[in-house]
Amino acid sequence: MTSSATTAAENRSRQGVLLGLAAYTIWGSFPIFFKALTGAAPLEIVCHRIFWSAVFLSLLVLLRGRLGAIRRTFADRTLLLTLCGSTLLIACNWLVFIYAVQVGEVLQSSLGYFITPLLSVLLGFLFLGERLSRWQQLSVLLALVGVISLTVQYGRLPWIALVLAASFGLYGLLRKIAEVDALIGLTVETLLLAPFALGFILYLLGRHQAGFLGGSLRLDLLLPLSGVVTAIPLLCFIGAARRLRLATIGFLQYITPSLHFLLAVGLYREPFNLAELASFLFIWAGLGVYSGEALWKSRSRGAAD
């Protein structure tokens, strides 16, 4: 690889890391935002997220003069089918996450997003031919022990965590292989569901069952804002996914559940015992091993140059 090609690859990787950090930090603070939407049902909130995201993203596409790219994406049947799949996955993820926040299961959402990196590594191995070093394998094993231990601590199937992990892990895989840029792909995803979302919002309004325009200024302001709050980190994530290996994406994903964990235990005072703490320590040890090896490799390449 030439020097210019190496520099371009490093710049692309650096951009991917920055985009990933932004996405996962914003997602990590989501429980605070969606706790503020108490008074609206989870499905109503998801519909507002979809509809207002579609409005916001469509305006961005229009301002950038990229309507032609939207038309070409809808005309590409293979690509459109892939985006239909990713659309259903991300909508499922949104709904289950909002439900978890509203019923006081932020800690289980944290577990779900701790499982997601393991699934990302597995999907990268199965479908994209990505390989892990021995240290990376050790990090995954440590995290896996922690996740299994946490599952045992719950004493029941943690369905919220499992659905969150499966839906977002598969979403990341589909967006990795979809040959469409972040803005266009995400706009098409939201446009696919926007008519259904708007229909449900109007249905609730007609039956006087909506939180929106129901007398709460807080909901009237925050529900439309949920579209912008939703779109920005997703754009960052998709941009990162197209620049980085799934294994690296998996590593960065620990940011979101760590923040959820801190909010669940520190702010919302959800039940958490010493055995569960030990399980989380295994997960964080895995993160430490992964991070240490990545840092060592980075310094080794710098010394070689």
Automatic annotation (TrEMBL):
It is a multi-pass membrane protein. The chain crosses the membrane at residues 16-38, 50-67, 79-99, 111-128, 135-152, 158-174, 186-206, 221-241, 248-268, 274-292. Keywords: Cell membrane, Membrane, Transmembrane, Transmembrane helix, Transport. This is EamA family transporter. PANTHER family: ACYL-MALONYL CONDENSING ENZYME-RELATED, SOLUTE CARRIER FAMILY 35 MEMBER G2-RELATED. It comes from Geothermobacter hydrogeniphilus. It is found in: Cell membrane. InterPro entries: EamA_dom, EmrE-like, RarD. The keyword Nucleotide-binding does not apply. Residues 16-150 form the EamA domain. It comes from the Bacteria. GO terms for cellular component: plasma membrane. Belongs to the EamA transporter family.
